[in-house]
Amino acid sequence: MQDLVLKDCDTFYGKAQALHGVTLSVSVGQITSIVGRNGAGKSTLLKTLMGLQPLSRGQRLMGDNDLSDRAPHQLNKLGLAYVPEDRQVFPNLTVMENLAVSTFAHRTLEWSADKVLELFPRLGERRTALGGVLSGGEQQMLAIGRALLCNPRFLLLDEPTEGLAPIVVEQLVKAICRIRDAGVGVVLVEQNLSIPLSISDTILALETGRVRWAGPAGQVRDTPTLLDEFIGV
Ligand code: ATP
Questions:
Q1: Residue 159 maps to which CATH number?
Q2: Which Pfam families match (predicted)?
Q3: Which of 151, 173, 188 is the last residue of a domain?
Q4: For ligand 1, which residues put their CB under 6 angstroms from it?
């Protein structure tokens, strides 16, 4: 299966450079976590993968295909789905309508609304509730479910567990592992290390828009202080 790769990429907001020569490789059926402090460039890296931030230098590749100049909707068709930090659930649509929006837009193969409800039983209990009244955890489940209905090969998640109760975090982490087991390549942005350490195959630490460390999560598990310099508060 083809890897998703960013190669030596620079990204700017106006004149301010947010990413400096970042290289990242993501495999299907694996979890790759991006960690780093506030403002390190984690969200920018996800947005750059998804085409929401232009590449000023460098390449976006899927296998041998150069996708550097593709727009987000084209990347979505090619198998990338993105769940932003603020989830962007439609507040005036019900849970099922939020899912239907994605089903209308994509010819889904692997994933169906039923499969999403099986992954997140809580959404089934809340199927007629409006998006705007859902709890943070329920919104996150809905946002992930909606992204899965694009049938992605790669799922980009920006701090999916931020601010959620431990029991909800546990449910989301289990679901993320099941999504990985279904063959999806998951890119997970997290500010601290605990979840990345427990479930990732690969970890990449960013600091001020630069990759400071990247390698197997097992290496960080063996040497827990390895990334202290680049994360922590
Ligand atoms: P956080 O954990 O706070 O979300 P982050 O690691 O995701 O942080 P980014 O949001 O990617 O970091 O920000 C990286 C840098 O780019 C920061 O210096 C930030 O101020 C800047 N930045 C982010 N978004 C914009 C924007 N829309 N316009 C200008 N600068 C931005």
A1: 3.40.50.300
A2: ABC_tran (PF00005)
A3: 151
A4: 13, 16, 18, 36, 38-44, 191
Distance of CA 47 from the midpoint of ligand 1 (Å): 11
Per-residue pLDDT at 101 exceeds 90: no
Check whether residue 145 and residue 167 sit in a common domain.
no
What residue owns the CA closest to ligand 1's atom 18?
39
Instruction: Mark whether 140 and 172 lie in a shared domain.
Output: no
**E strands, 27-161, where?**
31-35, 57-62, 65-66, 80-83, 154-158
CB 33 within 8 A of CB 217: yes
Mutation probe of ligand 1 site: the residue of 17, 42, 46, 156 with most atoms within 8 A of C-beta = 42
In ligand 1, the atom with minimum distance to the C-alpha of 40 is 6
> Into how many domains does the chain fold?
2
pLDDT confidence of 105, banded at 50, 70, 90? low
Return the best residue to mutate from 13, 45, 47, 193 for the ligand 1 pocket (most ligand atoms within 8 A of CB).
13
Question: Distance (Å, rounded) from C-alpha 90 to C-alpha 13?
Answer: 27
Are residue 130 and residue 177 in the same domain, yes or no? no
Model-level pTM?
0.94
ipTM: 0.95
Relative orientation angle of helices 136-148 and 95-105, to the nearest 10 degrees: 20
Cα-Cα-Cα-Cα dihedral of 25, 71, 116, 4, to 10°?
Answer: -10
pLDDT value, residue 142: 97
Instruction: Give the nearest ligand 1 atom to 85 CA.
Output: 4
